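Quick log. Single chain, no ligands specified.
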Amino acid sequence: MLISPRPHRHDVLIAVIGLSGGLLLWAVGLHTQGGRVVAAHQAALVPLAVTAGAELLRRTRPQAALATGTLALVADQLTTGSLATVVMYTDLMYAAVVYGSPVAARRIPVATFLVTVAVSIGFFAWYRTPEALVIAVAAGLVLFVPALTGAGVRNHRDAAEAARLRADQTALLAEMDRVQAVNAERSRMARELHDMVANHLSAIAIHSTAALSIDEPDTSREALGVIRRNSVDGLAEMRRLIGLLRESGANGPPGAAPTLASVDVLVAQAGANSASSGLTVSLDDGRGESGPLPAPVELAAYRIVQEALTNALKHAAPGPVTVRLGRSPTVLTVEVSSVFGDRPGPQVPGSGAGLVGMRERVALLGGTIGAGPGPRGDGVEIWLVRAELPVGERKWHT
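-> predicted structure:
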């Protein structure tokens, strides 16, 4: 920390008050002792002025100010003495502990205590009278008490600063948690929004392109029927998502999420949307009667099937599209395979957001997923999406 070379205005005020008080005491002839070495009354003004000058450095150079004040106090004891010099010295002792280095703040109270004890023992041994007790008390008031007071003030100030830093750190951590929670919620909403409407919008885009490019009344009527059906279904999905968001904002109960119980409806809908593209969609449900699945697993599996069927509608070559579900005691397996190759007719470009969303869902559940060319069957190369979702007891993150 950089320290300004200019004296603080409070230090200037203390120096002016101390010097003025000392001059007033000198003017009226009040002093602390008779001249022992220098009997001239004016000599007491020198230590007074030096101590007042040291007060200007009490905050910016506290240890140098204390050293200067100590020399001035010793010189003051050789003159008639001034009470103002002694009082200003106690302030320099206090300031050296409060504003000095941490090492000085620890050592000065110990050193002043030892000096006070040594002075007390020395005067008792020298005078052997009760008056020595007064000198011991005076030494303690001038040396040890200001240092002890400064140590208490500094400890309180350091504790307050530490508490402020802890509060700032707590606020920073809370803000980081809030931002992380907001980002996680945005990612979840993005996945839900994409998975809800991408299938319907892809079907609308493909069939609208077909209706515009093929000038046949029957084809156009069929395409418009598919477009209307997907528009209505997509609108219903959007309304459900808006309802979920409103209920979450009002701390209400969450709406019903899709599960694998309705996957056959999803497969049938995908088959109707892709029939004009030469795709035949089928479901092979090999789960059997193995009990219910955790809700996050149900939702993730449903969305993986939904997104994989959407990608097949946009990119798969004519041929079979098969959805396979398998269940073991610890893993739910989801596979969607389609013919890999160029497809004729209208196509919809992909953004890759669907694959990202599937990977995020699986990662949140601690599962694995892969997407790419699969094994050849009957001379036909397939595109395979395979996900394995753990179904054991654990803390699910959605």
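The two ends are 47 Å apart (CA to CA).
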